[in-house]
Amino acid sequence: MAALLFTAAGGALIVSWTAALFYFGALCTSILIYRAFFHRLRKLYSLRWVLPHLQYYSSAEKLHEKYGEIVRTGPRELSIANVDAAALIHGPSSRCTKGPWYSVLVALDLPSLQSSRDKQEHKVRRKIWERAFNAKSLREYEPRLNRHTFELMGQLKDQVTDSVRITDWLNWYSFDVMGDIGFSHDFGMVRGGKEDELITKLHKGMAGGSIFGHLTWMINLLVRPGVGIEDIVEFDSWAHDVLKRRHKIQPREPDVTGWIVDPDEEDLAKHVPDTKLLIVAGSDTTSSTLAWLCYELCKNPAVQIKLRKILDAMVGNKAFLDVEDVANVPYLDGIINETMRLHPAVPSGVQRLTPPEGLTLPSGPYKYIPGNTIVWTHTHTLQRNADYFPRPMTFIPERWTDEMSATHLLDKRAFQPFSAGTYNCIGQKLAMMEMRSVVANLVRRFEIEFAEGEKGERIERDTQDCFTVIVGALDVRLTPRTAGKS
Ligand code: HEM
């Protein structure tokens, strides 16, 4: 009897599997035929596949070099490195919405500010966040920021050897700052001189960000059943705990959470995605930019000397420069902008969906992008285009100042490291404050050069595109200098 039942069950299984195979076979064949012969993008743009991987931005850039400013990288996906199209996609009156990539984030969670795809919902949330990043709030974060930079400089002074892994220190610094300003949490990584285990796990979990961005259909297959996302789930529960702790206290100085979570709020779970966003959006972005900036300073010692002279002339012998001391130094901002131009922290850009009527471009060989098309503005390629930035591969901070902007900054719309329009980076002013503070103090205290044997190859080769980048290692030699002396 048991044997009979077993055989019957086995037969049913075979029938189900055969039916499923036929079903999926027919489905895949019809999709392939449709995409090969009937897809609405087919006549406009030929398909150039690029398999998602951790250096996606450089593969996509090669496609742009070969096939032009708009490349079809998926059945209904375009990679765009054309300034007019970028301006239409991100302009103030754009009807483009966030694309399905953002559903990857929501599949795991409730929406955050960044993953809200509904325009109205995003607008409401953004209004709340704006209070945390207006001029008054930013001023209130300055003391915390000054303390972190001061601590970093102190630690680097103690570390002075022939070789300092500067990428680690900058990463620890940026997480310390975001933990503190974001939700009064003390990571203490700079003080302790080592990475918090949680951050290691977060970085491991981020690799999927790039891959799923271009294969969103895999979300349901993998992410929903929870395959391979253990590190992300752990980060989620950590963020929940941190938020609960923060909610019980009244910090002595204002933080971002104080603006976005009501003190009487009972449902903290719905704020966890924003807590995670604060960390993810505000840390690796800033630290990777600072890392590339150090790389450029090592490669361009004249830039370092010029900045040092400007700062010395401005502040004399003052040992530590506060955020407000360096708020208006055009050459310093030029160095930061030039770094973000050549090494954007979100190199493959952001994903949007065109409105039903599509987009009509004003000029050039590309006339029309149909509706409901996924578009990525490829920031890395866009910002290295000689039509917008002459001598694009040369590091020229002066292109951002009166000295050379007329000849070397031909179309500022092509500069989008913080994205643009209604969904742009809400933390960009805070990021600038952080970067000015670190770079100005670093350059005044130390002469920076590549460590013995370092040529900058690892940061070039090992940087991973996980939506934001995780940079490869960079070792530098820091030679202390006496303030006010070159
Ligand atoms: C160099 C540093 C930074 C760079 C290059 C950068 C870049 C970007 C980019 C490209 C976006 C658009 C993302 C998208 O549309 O999906 C973005 C959004 C965002 N950034 Fe930044 N960011 C930086 C620093 C920061 C900092 C310090 C914070 C502080 C919390 C922050 C918070 C955010 C938030 C909350 C969003 C989502 C905004 C929205 O969807 O309305 N970022 N950032």
TrEMBL record:
It comes from the Eukaryota. The keyword 4Fe-4S does not apply. InterPro entries: Cyt_P450, Cyt_P450_E_grp-I, Cyt_P450_sf, Cytochrome_P450_monoxygenase. The chain crosses the membrane at residues 12-38. Heme binds at C425. Its cofactor is heme. The keyword Oxidoreductase applies. It holds the Pfam family p450. Keywords: Heme, Iron, Membrane, Metal-binding, Monooxygenase, Oxidoreductase, Transmembrane, Transmembrane helix. This is Cytochrome P450. It comes from Clohesyomyces aquaticus.
